[in-house]
Predict the structure of SCP domain-containing protein.
Amino acid sequence: MISCNKADLVLLGWVIFTQLWCALTQSAMYTDEDFLKRHNNYRQMLLDGKVPNQPIPKYLPLLRWNPNLKESARQWAERCVFAHEGGTGQGENLAAAMGYLPDPVERWFNEHQHYKFGPIIANEPVPVGHYTQIVAARTTDLGCYMRVCPELRITGSVKWLNAYFTTQTRQTQRSRRPPPPPPPPRQQQQQQQQQQQQQQQQQQQQQQQQQQQQQQQQQQQQQQQQQQQQQQQQQQQQQQQQQQQQQQQQQQQPLESRPQRRKPPRRPSRLR
């Protein structure tokens, strides 16, 4: 029986920790090292660009073996039921085969032939979620366990005898596609040119705004100067008017203040 499970994201401070565990019950067929090596080999192939029609991730760490995940996989695999455990916060990859020893990791990985980069669509005609979980960049830990089920319950009354079994639980967060590949050099150059143009436009706009502000300040200064000149002219006019009034007053004062000459009194005449 083979069962593979992936854990959901766990956010600890600034560290994002994701676990992948494969429950693959084993009877001297696959060792822990075999499972870990197979997963990491496929991840390295994707990172090296050796998987046809698949984007090359910027970052894809190799997986680590996790004994706790292996024990969790073993407990679920012992049930010999072809179904997802659910409610554990872990994803699962499941597969079943009779009459031969399967390579579940290869079967999951071969789904890349049907995978197109983009959002996952519910109820896809060809499953690809097993592949996306194997190559998820946020997955860091792996645990696997394998055994032969004397009787594997598939659905309802359908049972397989002496079967190998594998399972996958897919959730939106756990089955997200790998990040898109970096843009080619030409696109990067175009993006840089666009950014430079935008920066230049912003600088030009800022310069125009500064010029407008300077013009407004100059206009205000000119208006203030004109007002001051007008005030000075008014003051000068007032002073001139005052001076004229004073002169007029001075001219009138001598005439008014000049004393009138009195005629001497006439002497009485005498007759001789």
Remarks:
- The chain has a mean pLDDT of 73.
- The domain at 2-165 is CATH 3.40.33.10 (Pathogenesis-related Protein p14a).
- The longest strand covers residues 90-98.
